[in-house]
Amino acid sequence: MAEAPPVIVQPDAASETALDANHGTATNASESAVTVQPAASHDGPSDNAAEGARGGGQDAAATSEGDATEGEAGAEQATAQTKKKKSEPRIIVPFNAEEMDELIKQAFTLVEKECEKEEYDNGRVKVWRSLVEDYLVRKVMGLERPFKYCFYVSVMQNSGDGGNVVLGGYCQPDVDGFTSGHWENESVLVDVVVVAFSVQ
Asked: N or C: which end of the chain has fewer CB within 10 A?
């Protein structure tokens, strides 16, 4: 809502005479007639403010257009980099079964030390199995290969009856892999199967 322009108040030439109740003398009354004149127009500053607002709006629009242009350029650059990466040949790290076989043999030496002084004990099976599992997990983490590993460790009593271990799965032979190992003494049988799934 527009504000009303201020006014200038001027006393009229004719003034009424009133009696001062305290002093008994005649004085000019304050209720003299006045002439009201509108003040000078203040449209100038308002027009300037409006023009400034319009100018600011144009500057903001120009800035938004500039930001949009920069955003489009950044998106195009990111798309170009993605296409370049896709066009580059991928280097696939194959599963090294010989490397894993060596780790399995090292794990068996831990079991051998534990079992050389005692015969098969069902209460010790969990300890022997954990020795192999924990050792293999620590070693494959240190290799920093692009694979996820699954370990199967079986500890059984060597009673001469023999045994079979069967595992099934679905994988990609060109990038995934598996290997296995076996160790035994007169009273204990240990079988290990390692499956490696590529994350490349």
From this structure: N
- Rounded to an integer, the average pLDDT of 184-198 is 93
pLDDT digits 0-9 by tens, 14-45:
444 444 444 444 444 444 444 445 555 555 55
Side chain identity at residue 171, one-letter code: C
Does residue 151 contact residue 181 with C-beta atoms inside 8 Å? no
Task: Name the residue among 113, 114, 115, 132 with its Cα closest to residue 194.
Answer: 132
Do the domain assignments include residue 9?
no
* Residue 74 placed within a domain: no
What are the tokens at 13? 């030439």
Can you give the CATH number for the domain in which 122 is found?
Answer: 3.30.1140.40
Give pTM, 2 decimals.
Answer: 0.55
Place of tokens 């160790």: 183
